[in-house]
Amino acid sequence: MVQTYHAVPVSAEPNDVDDGRADEHEGSALLGDRASTTGLAASDTHKEGHATLTSSVGNLANTIIGSGMLTFPRALASAGIIPGMLTCVFSGAVGGFGLYLLSACARKAPHRRTSFFAVASLTFPRAAVFFDAAIAIKCFGVSSSYLIIIKSLLPNVVASLYHDLTPPDINPPEWALSGRVWISLLMVVLLPLSFLRRLDSLRHTSYIALFSCAYLVLIVIVCYFRPLKGMVPPGEIHLIKFTPSFISTFPIQVFAFTCAQNLFPIFNELKANSQKRMNIVIGTAIGSATVSYEIIAVFGYLTFGTHVGANIIAMYPSTSLFIAVGQLAIAILVLFSYPLQVHPCRNCLDKVFHFGSTTDKFGHEGVEDEHGAGDMTPLKHTVLTAAVVAGTFSIAYFVDNLEMVLSFVGATGSTTISFILPGLFYWKLTKDDPNRNKLLNTGALALICYGFLILIFCLSYNIYNIVHPTGGTGLA
């Protein structure tokens, strides 16, 4: 478990680990205690959230864990077992530290109305709209890629299931082998999920998606001890051996922990959202993702060695029903991750389109609900959601490969919201505070530098791939 999040000393609070039923006054007191430990002023939080620790962890973990986990065995093959495992833990720790800094900054916005726009308005007000625009573009691109993954994966699943469950002379209907048909049908499920206002409402689909991840973990473990007929024979296995492909696989590990776009909604909705409770959410989500990635990476690499491919699930024979169900599980995981990208995309677009016409300095307009959150009007909510869903569906319907576009979006958007902005926000809010934690302040500056280094490296690598195409994995 990553322990980065406990760098700030906290006092004992017996109610911090209860079932979330702390009363309103108690929750506000907890917020005040936590704000003082970070050197930030306590926020004016009068309303209590409704989300539990379990649902918050589930949604954050589902935001983290995606199709990127399929490439981790290849990452180990590019450097060896020991460096590959260390870089995975390092990437998770750095990502978690960025989340911790964001949760500390969140306490400056009152009434559980924290957002990137709200915090940016307190730190870099003139750039706030550009930050939200970058996040919206990033989430829009990722949600489009999710639909493209589903479009390419489900026809293979159908073919595999027909191969195993039906007589040889029975073939699947033509429509069932069309990815476009599948994403059109699945919009019946995704539309109502995308229109949900609160992230906590997606907790049940997040649980299903995380079960799908657990199934992939089961596949790599079982197939290591009991190889399936038709599997690729293993290549060499190295404890330490760096190869040129490490240049492309390391950024994938870095971006595999991206989830900052949903940190603020989780903070706003969590019951008694003290820093200690937020640390539990962040630590559990990052920790579980790290453990899952490590298991998939190690067992996948030990199974195939240097012969492992960029997509571990594709290394197993699709004629096996056990593997076909695994492919279906991956499709379900990606399917239920889609609404988790639409939610922050819609909220950020709201700030971009209404920049300059908001009713307060935190960029909120419209009615305030019973939890103190500034909500969009029903019409605005409907229009923005429909625009995001229609746009991502149209791209996925007509485009088969977004790799290059997502490489640039990931290199800039993911790096900005995961490393650069958390460091900048925290440093700006605490640099003049005489009671600030100097170690955390220095860590924030280091995170900013790290973010810019990753951004420059990834952009340079993507530009190099344009000039010298290699067919490598995109850095989305």
Automatic annotation (TrEMBL):
Subcellular compartments: Vacuole membrane
Domain of life, source organism: Eukaryota
Keyword set includes Signal: no
Residue spans crossing the bilayer: 76-102, 114-137, 175-195, 207-227, 247-267, 279-302, 314-336, 405-427, 439-464
GO cellular component terms, A-Z: fungal-type vacuole membrane
Keywords associated with the record: Amino-acid transport, Membrane, Transmembrane, Transmembrane helix, Transport, Vacuole
GO molecular function: L-arginine transmembrane transporter activity; L-glutamate transmembrane transporter activity; L-histidine transmembrane transporter activity; L-lysine transmembrane transporter activity; L-serine transmembrane transporter activity; L-tyrosine transmembrane transporter activity
Region annotation Disordered: where it falls in the sequence: 1-24
Family: Belongs to the amino acid/polyamine transporter 2 family.
Identification of the protein by name: Vacuolar amino acid transporter 5
Lineage: Eukaryota, Fungi, Dikarya, Basidiomycota, Agaricomycotina
